Amino acid sequence: MGFPSFTLPGMLLLLQFILLLFYSQQAASVQHNNFTDLAALLSFKSQVRDPDGLLDRSWSSNTSFCSWLGVSCSSRRLRVVALRLAGLSLHGTISPHLGNLSFMTHLSLSNNSLGGLIPESLGRLPRLTYLGLGVNRLSGRIPATVFNMSFLEYLSFTSNNLSGPLLLRNASFTVPKLKSFSIQSNQISGTIASGLLQCQDLEELWLSSNQLSGSIPAEFDKLQKLTSLLVDTNDLTGTIPASLGNLTSLVELDLHTNSLRGPIPPELGSLRNVQWLNLADNILTGGFPASILNASMVSVLSLSANNLTGSVPAELGNNLPFLTKLGFGPNQLSGRLDFITSLSSCRKLQNLYIADNQLEGSIPDSVGNLSRSFLKFNARGNRISGRIPMTLGNLSGLLNLHLENNWLTGSIPPALSNLRELQLLYLGSNSLSKSIPYELGKLKRLGQLNLEFNELNGAIPDSIGNISGLQFLRLHNNRLSSSIPRSIWSLTNLVGMYLSQNSMEGSIPYGIGNLATLSNLDLSTNRFSGSIPDAFGQLLMLTTLNISNNFFDGPIPQSFGKMISLRYLDLSSNEFSGPIPKSLADLKYLVGLNLSFNKLEGQIPSGGVFANITFRSLMGNIGLCGPSFLRIPPCSDQSTDSDPRSKQQKLKIILPTVASLVVLFSCSFFYFVLHRKSNHAIPSSNTTCLKHYSLIPYRDLLRATDNFNESNLLGAGSFGSVYRGRLDDGSLVAAKVINLEKEGSSKIFDVECQALRMIRHRNLVKVISTCSNMDFKALILEYLPNGSLENWLYSPGYCLTLLQRINIALDVASALEYLHHHLRQVVVHCDIKPSNVLLDEDMNAQVGDFGIAKLLASDGKSVALTSAAGTVGYMPPEYGFMGRVSRRGDVYSYGILLLETFTRKKPTDRMFDGELNLRQWVSDAYRTRLFDILDANLFRDARVDRVAAEEDHGTRNRCLMSVLELALQCSKDSPRDRILMKDVVPILQKIKIEYCKSFPET
Question: Is 654 exposed, middle or buried (0-12, 13-18, 19+ CB in 10 A)?
C-alpha cells in the first residue's frame, strides 16, 4: 500500500492546521492552570487583612496576576513561581489553597502578623526551594509534610508561637538539599531531631530560644558544611560534646543560656574559623579554657555567667587579635589584670566586660593602649585596688566606664576629661578621695555622673554646669562642702540630683525653677539653710523632694501646691514655721509626706494626702492642732466658745438641723418597710458597704443587660460572670454577678464590699453600686472599654507599645502602693495577674477583682491564710509553705506580671516545668540576651525593628533592662529581699521620664 502523494502547497496547509490545533490545546491548558493559580491567590487575599492597603491597590482584577505586588510568574506558562510578601504588616491566616500553586519555588511571608496554623498543603509544593514564614504569630505544630520536601533548601519559622516537638516518633525527616533551617524564638519542645543529621548540605542551623531539652548530639560533627550552629536559650543539659571541635567550617557557635555543665572541652580550640563563640549563662566549671586561644579568628567571645575559676591567661589578646567583644563576668575568676596588657594587640576591641569576679590588683597603665575604637569597659564588682590610671584618658572613643564597687583609692585623674565621647561615668562605692576635678566639666556628652559612696571632699566644681546634657548627678554619701554652684541650675536636662549625706551649705536660689525636667531631688542631711523659693512651683515633673535634716526656715511656700507630679515630700528636721499650706492637699499624686520636727503651727489641712497622714509624719510640731486620732491637740476658737451669744446662735442652727434629720430618717425607715416587697433587689445588710451610692434595682439591671444576654458577657470566672450593661441614664457599666452556688461566693461578695468601701484611687476599678437580695448578688462597676491586659498581650490583632506597657506597669504599681501604704487598714489584693488589670478608653490601667483580698492591721503585718489565695504562677512561694499573706506577696505577683507584660510569656507556659520558671528564665538571660526574651511585638513599632533595637546602645535598651531588673527585684523568693511598692513607683517613674525624654513623639 503506497502513501498518497501531496503537492508542496498541500503539505504546508496540513502543517499549518496541525500547529493551529496544538496551540489551541495549549492555550486551553494554560487558561485552566492560570485559573487555578488565580483562585489560590484570591483565596489567600480573602483570609488576610492589609492595613496599608497595598494588596487592595495592586491585586486588581483589571490586571494580570503576574503583575501583582509580590507575584512572579514563569515566562512560558505564566504560572506563579514566587510569592514574596514579606514585611507588609499582613494580618489573618495563611490559606491552604496556596498549596495549589504547584509551580511555586519561592514563598516568603515573613515579618507580618499572620496567625493560625501552618497549612499542611504547603508541604506538598513539589518544586518549593524557599519557605520563609518567620516573624509572625503562627501557632500549633509544624506540619510533618514540611519535612519531606525533596527540593527545599531554605526553611524558616523564626519568631512565631509554634509549639510541640519537631517530629512525632517514627516520623520521617527527608529534606536532603536543606541548607538553612531556623525555628528560633518559638516554643518547640522535645529533643533535637536526629533527622537533621541526615542533611549533609546543611550550613545554617538556628534552634535558639525554644524549649528543647536533652543533650547536644555528639553526631553534629557529621554536618561538615555547617557554618552556623545556634542552639542557645533552651533547656539543654549534659556537657558540651568534644566532637563539635571537628566542625572546622563553623563561623558561629552559640550555646548560651542552657544548663550545660562540666568544663569547656579543649577541642573547641580547633575551630580555627569561628568568629562568634558564646558559651555564657550555663553552669560550666573549670578554669578559663586555654585552648580557646587557638581559635585565632574569634571576634566575639563570651564566657559570662558561669562558674569558671582560676586566672585569665596573660597572653589572651596576643592570640586573639580579631576580638571585638570579650566578656567573662560574672564568674569566680581571680588573679590580676595582666591580661589587659595583651589586649592592646586587639586593634578592633570595642567591649570588655569583666564585672562581678574576684579580680584584684591595680589596673595596669597599659589600659591606655587599647583600641581607639574601644567603647565600653565594665570592671565593676571586683577587688580592684590602687589608683585609677591616668592613661585611661587615652581611650578617646570610650562611651561607658564602670569601675564602681571596687577598692579604688586616690583621686579622680583629671585626664579622664579627655574622654570627650563618654556618656556614663560610674566610680561609686570605692574609696576615692580629694576633690572632684574641675576638668570633668569638659565631658560635654556625659549623661550620668555617679561618684556616690566615696570620700570626696571640697566643693562641687562650677564646671559641672557645662555638661549641658547631664541627666543624673549622684554625689551622695561623700564629704563635700561649700554651696551648690550656680551653674548647676542651668542643667535643664537634669532628671535626678542626689547630694544627700554631705556637709554642703548655703541656700537654694530662685534659679532652681530652670530644672523643668527634674524628677528627683535629694538634698537631705546637709547644712543648707534659708527660706525655700517660690520657684519650686515651676518643677512640674518633680516626683520626689527630700530636703530633710537641714536648717531651712521660714514658711513652706504655697507654690508647692503647683508641683502637680509630686508623690513624696520630706521636709522633716528643719526649722519651717507657720501653717501647713492647704495647697498640699490638692496634690492628687502626693502619697508620702513627712513634716515632722519643725516649728509648724495651726490647723492641719483636710483631704488629699492628709486624709491618711499619721502622727509620725507630724510629730515634733508643738503648734499644730487637728483630729484626735493624730494624737495632737484639737483645734478650738476661744473667742467664739467663750461668747454666750455665739453659743445661742449655734443652738439656733444645730437644733433645727437635728430635728430635720430625725424626721427624714423616720420617713425613710417607714418607706423602706412599706416598699421592701415591691422590689426584687432590696439590698441585704452586706450592701451597706457602699451606702453612699444609689442602689440599682434588680429589674433595672435585667433591662440594662438584656436579661443577662450572652452577647453582653464580658468574661466568666469560678465565682461568677461579668456582663456589660447600659443603664437607663445611658451610662455603660460592668455587672459582676456572683455565682451563689459556688462555695464561699457570698464571702467573696462581702470581701469585695469591705475592700471597696475603704478605697478610692484612679487606678482601682470604680464601684458604682450593688444589687443584692437573698437569691442574687452583683457588684456594679465602671465599664472599661479596652478590656484586660491579658487580652492585649495574647489576643490576635492586639499590640502594646513599649510606652503603653511602662504606663500600665506604673498604673498597677500606683494602685498597689495606695493599697499597701496609704490606707488606715492595709489591703492586700492577693490575686494580681493580667486578667485583673483592666484598661479604660485612654489605655489607663485599673486593678479590679478584690474577691480574695485580705485586710491587714495598719502595721501591714502578715496574716495566716484560711483559704486558697491567688492564682498558680502568680502566687508567691510563702503562700504555699508558710501559709501567710502579706504586702510582699502582692509585690511578688506584681513582679511576675511585669515580666509577663514585657516578655509575653505566661508563668504557666509549658516551657516552665521542673526547676525553670519565668523568673529564672529572664534572670538567666536579660543581661546578655535581652532581645531573645522580650516580646517580639515590641519591635513592630514602625520606628524601630529588632535589628535596629539590638544595635541601639541608648535609652530604649536601658529602659527595658531597668524594667526587667525591677521585676526580678520584686519577684525574689524570699519576702524580705523584695522591695516595697512605695519604692517601685519612683523607679518606674524614672524609667518613664528617661524614655519620654528620648522619644518625646511617643
Answer: exposed
- Stated as kind and residue range, the H or E segment containing 895 is helix 887-903
Strand-pair partners of 684: none
State how far the Cα of 256 lies from the Cα of 279, in Å rounded to an integer: 5
Is residue 831 part of the annotated active site? The answer reads yes
DSSP assignment of 750-798, as one string? HHHHHHHHH---TTBPPEEEEEEETTEEEEEEE--TT-BHHHHHHSTT-
> Are the CB atoms for 794 and 904 separated by under 8 Å?
yes
Q: What is the pTM of this model?
A: 0.62
Bridge partners, residue 91, by sequence = 49, 113
Task: Look at residue 555 and give its three-state secondary structure.
Answer: coil
d(CA 658, CA 660): 5
Q: Half-sphere exposure (CA, 13 Å, Cβ side) for 586?
A: 10
- Helix or strand (DSSP H, E) at 666: helix 644-675
Res. 20: pLDDT tops 60: no
**For residue 487, what are the CA distances in angstroms to 1, 511, 517?**
119, 9, 16
Question: Would you say 832 and 899 are in contact if contact means Cβ atoms under 8 Å apart?
Answer: no
- Cα–Cα nearest to 323, from 274, 383, 389, 289: 274
Residues 455, 452: Cα–Cα separation, whole Å:
9
The H-or-E segment that residue 316 falls in is: helix 316-319
Q: What is the mean pLDDT of residues 588-607?
A: 92
- Residues pairing with 107 in the sheet: 83, 131
Percentage of the chain exceeding pLDDT 90: 58
Is the peptide bond preceding residue 330 cis, with omega within 30 degrees of 0? yes
Length of the chain: 1002
CA distance 254 to 276: 7
Distance between CA atoms of 262 and 626, rounded to whole angstroms? 69
Q: How far apart are CA 121 and CA 186, in angstroms?
A: 21
Cα separation, 536 vs 581, in Å, equals 14
| DSSP H stretches of helix in 904-954 | 918-925, 930-933, 946-951
Virtual CA dihedral for 885, 888, 890, 895, nearest 10 degrees? -140
- Report the C-alpha dihedral over residues 674, 677, 680, 685, rounded to 10 degrees: 60
Give the mean pLDDT of the chain: 84
Q: Is pLDDT above 70 for 354?
A: yes
In whole angstroms, give the CA distance from residue 45 to residue 38: 11
Q: How far apart are CA 983 and CA 782, in angstroms?
A: 29
Closest alpha carbon to 149 in 184, 173, 183: 173
Return d(Cα 884, Cα 861) in angstroms, integer.
10
| Number of neighbouring beta carbons within 10 Å of residue 651 | 10
CA distance 926 to 933: 7
Binding site for ATP, by residue number, is: 736
| Cβ neighbours of residue 280 closer than 8 Å, sequence gap 6 or more | 256, 257, 302, 303, 304, 305, 306, 327, 928
Q: State yes or no: pLDDT of 274 exceeds 90.
A: yes
> What does the pLDDT average to over 594-616?
91
3-state secondary structure of 810: helix
**pLDDT, tens digit, 9 for 90 and up, residues 380-421:** 999 999 999 999 999 999 999 999 999 999 999 999 999 999
d(CA 158, CA 183): 5
Residues in a beta bridge with 788: 838
CA distances from 971 to 70, 365, 700, 933, 979 (A): 48, 42, 44, 17, 9
What grid cell was written down for 83? 510569592
Q: Which residues are annotated as a binding site?
A: 736
CB 466 within 8 A of CB 491: no
Out of 235, 831, 849, 909, pick the active-site residue.
831
pLDDT tens sequence across 175-185:
999 999 999 98
